[in-house]
Amino acid sequence: MLMRKTIRVALILLTLSMADASCLVWAQLALAEVVGRFSVSTMGAVLPEGWKPLTFKKIPTQTKYEVITESGVTMVKAISEASASGLTKAVRIDLKEFPIVRWRWKVENLLQKSDATRKDREDYPARRYTTFEYDPDKVSVGKTLKYKAGQALF
């Protein structure tokens, strides 16, 4: 039996004007496990079906999301003005069967003074994170503390 892991797909959109995120797919050869087919989402919906907002305690303004169609492609549009938030979806994927992830998006209006190496200018137009469930009984005390600290912060 293949080992199953829970994957939380978190799309973190910071200062994003437009995200062409029409499909998130875990794939290998012709087989695919579709996680987010935004192209079949309901037009005008705030969030695609099954996706949940991710907000941050220290950031007062969140990114606004809406399902739109542009040039015949249905996508999630994210508008951020001095704001940040994200979208998450928890899924179970067999990583041995589907070891590849495919994602596409479109970003407009990049910030000219953004610099990921400097805290005062750190800003990202778009990010995609993939996280994995783990058994805390099999992890060191130090890693468990880091995990708990991360949970408390986010």
Automatic annotation (TrEMBL):
Span of the signal peptide: 1-21
One Pfam entry name: DUF3047
Entry superkingdom: Bacteria
InterPro entries per UniProt: DUF3047
Keywords attached to this entry: Signal
Keyword Signal: yes
Protein name in the entry: DUF3047 domain-containing protein
Originating species: Candidatus Nitrospira nitrosa
